[in-house]
């Protein structure tokens, strides 16, 4: 018994999985399947219960049974604002033999929407340098509000945010430029790039 992803679990989209059960028995088995989804923090603490569902299925002899699981974005997005993964568990009970129980657990890490960061031109110590951050709102109907990257604003559905900004490096050598994007729906979406800062020649 195991979980399989139907598609990559992207934050902002419904998460779709399947629970795969294989029968090596010669008899039909009537099963009760209790599926629960919880938010989980990076250090393993369980947060809010996102959804619970109970399914009754029949497992035929020598056959595979696939149980579809769908976790809507509308159900998980608020609990996941302060959490890092979804804990999906399935407890399967043989109805005719209630002592026969099987447990499958999977931790699902959501893939953040893409964000890019790049520096334009050469960089020198104590000289203003131009950079650009691009983020695409992956939502179909929802406008992202309270967006912050030093600046603040809104992003309408399926619109791209492009921010041009300047910065002044104070040390030479290889440096890492980091952008941290937050909004009403997504938290801590990061992008980084390596910048080779040269000495200024006066």
Your description of this structure?
The chain has one helix spanning 73-76, and strands spanning 2-5, 15-22, 29-40, 46-59, 64-71, 85-94, 101-108, 115-120, 123-124, 129-136, 144-149, 151-155, 160-167, 173-181, 189-198. Helices cover 2% and strands 58% of the residues. The protein is built from 1 helix and 15 strands; from the N terminus they run βββββαββββββββββ. The strands form 5 sheets. It has a 4-stranded antiparallel sheet with strand order 4-3-6-7, with no helix packed on it. Strands 1-2-5 form a 3-stranded antiparallel sheet. A 3-stranded antiparallel sheet has the order 8-10-13, with no helix packed on it. The protein folds into 2 domains: 2-108, Immunoglobulin-like (Sandwich); 115-198, Immunoglobulin-like (Sandwich), CATH 2.60.40. With 202 residues, it is mostly beta strands.
